[in-house]
Every structure is written in structure tokens, then in C-alpha cells.
């Protein structure tokens, strides 16, 4: 009469063992489960960190540029350089709703950080952040000229007048594809006799937000200019004349190519 009891006990023990093994198996599967979104996040984090290094490299390049300028001219250009540095360091990667985001070309549902546009790696699922359309440099081709009639809101009591921005040089940054360094001449035709004030400016073009930011060479002007090109439009931009130091908006103009 004891044998069936033993058999029952051993069969209960076997069931418990099977349950335990099953539980262990599930736990192992959960622990060892590959999570693609976490992995993508890791890769993104790595890329962002690497872009931070690129920013440091760009700052170093700007530093070298500063030294170069000091050799060429007696006038130091620290304000301009500091402003460029500040603009670059303010760029931080964010999600799709953030300020510095770029909508993937051909895929409106996806966004990437401005810092990842035209950097040589596909970040959009369809590679739209690296295609020829997005990374086209025609708008900053030397010789391109943009002009428009500026309306002053503050800073100076100027009447409406023409502003002309002519690109004189552009150079991709070696390790930071999202930006191209640009040189330009900016002309403000400040009075009715078309008495013009021209100044040399330098800055960058950001592929991610299609923004051309130009600051004057030290001592040449108190104004800087920024122009935002619509995606896909190489010929028209919404531009602002801003006070170089405060970045206060003084005037606006709609610029078109001549
Ligand atoms: Ca990219």
C-alpha cells in the first residue's frame, strides 16, 4: 500500500521539477531576450557621443582658424569665434519634437538630430538624411548671390533697403559633415542713393536645418545675417539681420537668387 504513495510523491516531485525548469527557461529567455530598440538606443548614444567629439574637433579647428586670422590681421577676432563656438555648442541632439531635429527626406514619419544630417552615416530608415537632395551644396556654392528688401523693426532707423549676400567660399569640415564653413560678403544698401555698406562675414551652413549663419569679421559691422532655406528650395530664403553681440533681430528680408 506504500508503493503507490511513493509513486505519487515521485510524480509530484517530477511535475514540480518540470515547472521549475519551465520557469527557469522562461526567466532565461527573458534575461537573454535581444531588445532591438534598446540596441538602437545604444548605437545612437554612441553616435551622439562620437558627434560630441566631432564638436570638440570643430572647436579645435575654429581655434586654429582664429590663430590663422591673427597672423593675417592685427585685429583679433575673438567675438566672432566665441559666437561661432556658442552656436555650435548649443546644438544638442533631441527627439522628433525637439528644436534641432531634421525630418527625414522622403519619410515624414521619422526625424533625426541635425547633428546627424550629411555626416556620412544613414540615420533615417530610408537613408534620407544622407541623400543627394538633402546634402546638396548648391545654395552655398561660391558666386551664389541672394538679395532682398529689408524692413527694419529696430536697432537702426533705416528705411527699407536692399541686402545682398554673396557667397565667396565654402569648405566642408573634415570630421563634421553636418556643417560646412562659409565665407560671404554682405552688402547693406542703407540709403536712397544706394550708398552701400559691405562687410566680410564668415560662418556655417547647417544641412540639418538649412540655416546659413554669417557673422562679420571683427570691426567690420555690428550686424550678422542668418538665412533659412526651405527644404527643396535652393533659390529662396527667409533672412534676418541681427545685432552681432545680442543676436537681437533688427530687420527681415526674403532673399532670392539674382
Ligand atoms: Ca546621418
From TrEMBL:
It comes from the Eukaryota. SUPFAM superfamilies: Extracellular hemoglobin linker subunit, receptor domain, Heterotrimerisation domain of extracellular hemoglobin linker subunits, LDL receptor-like module. InterPro entries: Eryth_link_C, Eryth_link_C_sf, Extrac_hemoglob_link_heterodim, LDL_receptor-like_sf, LDLR_class-A_CS, LDrepeatLR_classA_rpt. The keyword Signal applies. Pfam families: Eryth_link_C. Residues 1-32 form the signal peptide. Keywords: Coiled coil, Disulfide bond, Signal. Residues 48-75 form a coiled coil. Residues 140-256 form the Annelid erythrocruorin linker subunit C-terminal domain. This is Hemoglobin linker chain.
Amino acid at each position: 500500500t506504500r508503493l503507490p504513495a511513493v509513486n505519487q510523491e515521485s510524480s509530484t516531485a517530477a511535475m514540480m521539477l518540470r515547472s521549475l525548469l519551465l520557469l527557469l527557461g522562461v526567466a532565461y529567455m527573458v534575461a537573454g531576450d535581444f531588445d532591438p530598440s534598446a540596441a538602437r538606443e545604444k548605437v545612437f548614444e554612441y553616435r551622439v557621443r562620437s558627434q560630441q567629439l566631432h564638436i570638440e574637433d570643430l572647436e579645435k579647428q575654429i581655434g586654429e582658424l582664429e590663430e590663422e586670422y591673427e597672423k593675417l590681421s592685427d585685429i583679433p577676432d575673438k567675438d566672432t569665434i566665441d559666437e561661432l563656438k556658442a552656436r555650435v555648442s548649443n546644438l544638442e541632439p533631441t527627439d522628433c519634437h525637439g528644436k534641432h531635429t531634421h525630418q527625414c527626406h522622403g519619410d515624414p514619419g521619422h526625424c533625426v538630430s541635425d547633428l546627424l544630417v550629411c555626416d556620412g552615416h544613414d540615420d533615417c530608415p530610408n537613408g534620407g538624411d544622407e541623400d543627394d537632395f538633402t546634402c546638396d551644396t548648391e545654395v552655398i556654392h561660391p558666386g551664389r548671390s541672394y538679395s532682398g528688401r529689408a524692413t527694419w523693426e529696430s536697432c537702426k532707423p533705416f528705411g527699407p533697403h536692399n541686402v545682398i549676400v554673396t557667397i565667396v567660399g565654402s569648405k566642408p569640415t573634415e570630421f563634421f559633415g553636418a556643417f560646412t564653413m562659409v565665407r560671404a560678403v554682405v552688402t547693406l544698401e542703407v540709403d536712397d542713393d544706394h550708398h552701400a555698406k559691405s562687410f566680410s562675414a564668415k560662418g556655417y551652413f547647417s544641412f540639418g536645418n538649412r540655416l546659413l549663419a554669417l557673422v562679420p569679421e571683427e570691426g567690420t559691422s555690428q550686424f550678422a545675417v542668418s538665412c533659412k532655406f526651405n527644404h527643396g528650395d535652393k533659390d529662396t530664403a527667409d533672412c534676418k539681420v541681427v545685432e552681432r553681440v545680442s543676436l537681437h533681430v533688427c530687420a527681415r528680408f526674403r532673399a532670392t537668387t539674382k
